Amino acid sequence: QVHLVESGGGLVQAGGSLRLSCAASKRAFSGYTMAWFRQAPGKERAFVSVISWSGGNTDYADSVKGRFTISRDNTKVTMYLQMNNLKPEDTAVYYCASRPGPPARTQYEFGYWGQGTQVTVSS
User: Fold this and answer.
1) How far, in Å, are 11, 21, 48, 110 from residue 75 at the CA level?
2) How far is CA 82 from CA 17, 42, 51, 71, 113, in A?
3) Alpha carbon distance 3, 111 (integer Å)
4) Computed over its alpha carbons, how large is the radius of gyration of the chain?
5) 70 - beta bridge partners?
6) Among 44, 46, 57, 111, fewest CB within 10 Å belongs to which?
7) HEC letters along 58-121
8) What is the mean pLDDT of residues 4-21?
9) Residue 2: pLDDT over 90
10) What is the reported pLDDT for 27?
């Protein structure tokens, strides 16, 4: 069975921090590239960050560089997104996704998705 489950979302004031987690089934995690996307109300789902299976290759959207850090613990079959200095424009539903290929930035290249976790940043 394949599943990805996000957690850690919530309401935070601007400048605050949150840490998202994505717990995965081994079938959707082992050897797979993992990524975070987000979708704000009325907008398309957008790339946030991606990490290779080894963790040695990461990439970020320009809007989150220097504020967000992606990581993974392959022993725990879990991926994380540490979000610091949050801004109101970071408000969105955050989704984790996985794919068996190399890192990518477009949602259409990812076949496995979680249900999402809401992040709301108040000003």
Assistant:
1) 29, 14, 24, 22
2) 8, 25, 13, 8, 19
3) 11
4) 13
5) 81
6) 44
7) EEECCCCCCCEEEEEECCCCEEEEEECCCCHHHCEEEEEEEECCCCCCCHHHCCEECCCEEEEE
8) 98
9) no
10) 76
Reference 87, options 14, 17, 37; nearest CA is 14
Query: Average pLDDT, stretch 30-55?
Result: 95
Q: In sequence order, what are the residues at sequence separation of 6 or more whose Cβ sits closer than 8 angstroms to the Cβ of residue 118?
A: 9, 10, 92, 93, 94
Residue type, 86: L
Answer yes or no: are the C-beta atoms of 2 and 94 closer than 8 Å: no
Tell me the mean pLDDT in the region 74-80. 94
Kind of pairing between the strands at 117-122 and 68-73: unpaired
Is a pLDDT exceeding 80 seen at residue 116? Answer: yes
Rounded CA gap, 68 and 61, in Å? 10
């979680």: which residue's tokens?
114
